[in-house]
Amino acid sequence: xxxxxxxxxxxxxxxxxxxxxxxxxxxxxxxxxxxxxxxxxxxxxxxxxxxxxxxxxxxxxxxxxxxxxxxxxxxxxxxxxxxxxxxxxxxxxxxxxxxxxxxxxxxxxxxxxxxxxxxxxxxxxxxxxxxxxxxxxxxxxxxxxxxxxxxxxxxxxxxxxxxxxxxxxxxxxxxxxxxxxxxxxxxxxxxxxxxxxxxxxxxxxxxxxxxxxxxxxxxxxxxxxxxxxxxxxxxxxxxxxxxxxxxxxxxxxxxxxxxxxxxxxxxxxxxxxxxxxxxxxxxxxxxxxxxxxxxxxxxxxxxxxxxxxxxxxxxxxxxxxxxxxxxxxxxxxxxxxxxxxxxxxxxxxx
Amino acid sequence: xxxxxxxxxxxxxxxxxxxxxxxxxxxxxxxxxxxxxxxxxxxxxxxxxxxxxxxxxxxxxxxxxxxxxxxxxxxxxxxxxxxxxxxxxxxxxx
Lengths: 350, 94
Hints:
The complex is a heterodimer of chains A (350) and B (94).
Chain A: H1 15-27, E1 30-33, E2 37-44, H2 47-54, E3 66-73, E4 79-88, E5 91-97, H3 98-111, E6 116-120, E7 125-131, H4 138-143, E8 155-160, E9 163-169, E10 177-183, H5 187-197, E11 202-203, H6 209-216, H7 221-224, H8 250-259, E12 263-270, E13 281-284, E14 287-298, E15 303-311, E16 320-325, E17 328-335, H9 343-349
Parallel strand pairs in A: 1-11
Antiparallel strand pairs in A: 1-7, 2-5, 2-6, 3-4, 4-5, 7-10, 8-9, 9-10, 12-15, 12-17, 13-14, 13-16, 14-15, 16-17
Chain B: H1 2-23, H2 48-62, H3 77-85
Helix pairs in contact in B: 1-2, 1-3
């Protein structure tokens, strides 16, 4: 795997894996199992009220069979976890990065009243991801008509091979994307059925996903936060319901909006590959004005792309800055995101 | 030159945000919208009706004509600002 931040190869995957998986998802279909996803279930009469106090997004307005990507904040407005909340007729599935699942579970249990039950289904359920511009018809092909025509951020429950399966339209790469939540021991069978329905699909790992997400500026907690940044500095405003009277971190968010942000995340591009150290400094006329959080080489754009945090005064698009690389200072230009216009976006617009 | 570009961009982005809030009657202030937030889907959750409202607002208030085959400019406040700043030449890609 290529570390998007510094360009080094990590353990367990190769450059060819990354290229193969990247190409499949950008041009065809990629199938993978998402191993680093926690799955928590919250149910009971007080579940919605508990979650509305817990997450920054609005739970009361989340209709049945819909998904909300929102945030769990701490009292300083920093991100504890970004979570995807599924409303299954008053029973809620919460997914988030596996390494944040324990903290989210503990906090939830600490806040939960007696009429709310919380279970960890991470080990019981597997999540199989299907992504790419040619994936649009696969849910129906595998799960039947109940899974046909799912809108973005909607899900349905259906039966595949006798198993209860949740099929959700959600993805983080800018392409059409689906998650199949299945009993873990049945994941291989789902992958085989998907493979049968899409013989050209690439069954692979997740080595390209950090890069695929970066191209869309799809938030990636593990790479996009590096120095205790707040959720607002990271540009996660859209995860927050600013009018909700109560949620974790609300006072800090309100105070930050009132005072103005100190720094802001912003995308950048460069013509040549950049070999960057962690938190490489970004400067303007010799003065450091920020640092790089996440960067990589976009095969589609044939440019270096990245995410930096700049002092608020400097965090605007279309401006040149210098970034310190292993080969000396290089020029970058701040740029709008998403960086890439995906094939799925073009097809959806037709 | 740098300061001028920076100021122009900040003012344009602020105008785009104010236009979105006003035209769509969003219960938000401009400061509560991030420049790269997706406008549809995950982000503000706008729909195709909202897109038409934005088109009318941009054409009326910012003086650029949006072709029918360029829906891509509505991906974020920043991509709208790119389009307006280019006088209608940018198609929503970097």
